[in-house]
Amino acid sequence: MKIPSEPTEAWVAPQGQRVRLTNLSKPFWPHLGLTKRDLLAYYAGVSSALLPHLSDRAMVMKRYPNGASGDFFFMKRTPSPKPEWLRVCSIEHASGNVIDFPVVDGLAALLWVVNLGCIDLNPWYARCDDVDRPDYLHFDLDPVPGATFPRVLETACLVREALSHLRMPCYAKTTGSRGIHVYVPIRRGPTQKEVWAFAKEFARQLESGHPKLVTAEYRKAKRPPRRVLVDYNQNAWGRTLASVYSVRPTPRAAVSTPLTWKEVEDGVRIDDFRIDNVPARLRERGDLWKPLLSPKSRFRLETLL
Fold it and tell me: Which CATH class is domain 127-305?
C-alpha cells in the first residue's frame, strides 16, 4: 500500500477500514531526511511478513510524538476515541484494573498505531485468549558496559548450543539497538511464572559455565563489566520486547531483523539492517522467522519442568 503524498494528513482505507494519517511531513530522523511518512511507508511495505507475528496479541504503545530523538512515553490503554473496527484485548491486572490494549491484526491497525508515534512495536508474548500462558520463551542478550557486540554474538551461539542440548529450537534477531534476541517457540501450557522460572535457571546455568563472558545478574549495579547479560526477566508477566521488523529510534534507524545462525557465527553489525534496506532483504530472503508461526515447530516446555 502506498502512503499518500499529502504534506500534512491523509485518509487511507486498507480492507475498507479508514485510518487518518497525520503530520506526515514531520521529521522523525532529520539527519537522515526521514519523516513520519517514511516510517508509515516502511511498515506498510513489510506488513505482510510482520502482521502474523503481532496478531492476537496485546500491544504496548511506546510513543515518540517528536521523532526518534525526542521524548517518549509508554501507553497501555487504547486512546479514545478509537476506530470502531479496532480490536482490543482486555487484560485484568493484579490491582483489579482492566486495561484495553489495542491489537494489531491488520494493516489498518498497524498504520493507526504507528501514526500515534510508535516507532517500535511491543507485543505481549501470550495471546489474548490466555494471557497467563505464553507461546514464546526468549532471552534478551544485552552488553554490559565494556562488552563488545562480537561478545554478544558469541553469547548468542552459547545460548543456541545450550538450547540445542535440550532439543529446543531457537531463532535469533538483532534487537536493532545493542544486542540480540533469541526466541524459543513453545506450546501453550506452562504458566508465565513457570516459563520465567525456567528462563532464570537456564541463564544462571549459562553464567555458571561461562563466568568470564555471561552474567545473569539482574541488579544493574552488581553486574561485572565486559560481560553479556542473558536477560531472563523479560519473560515476566506483562513485559515486552521490540518485535521482529520493528524500527528502533537509533541514529541510523536500525531494524530488529531476523538472522540465520550462520550470520550470527560469521558476524554482523546492528546497523547492517536499517529502515532503508530491510524491505529489500525481506523480498530477497523471505521471512526467516516464519517457522515461529507454525504449530509444528513449538517445543513442549512442560517436559523439562
Answer: alpha beta
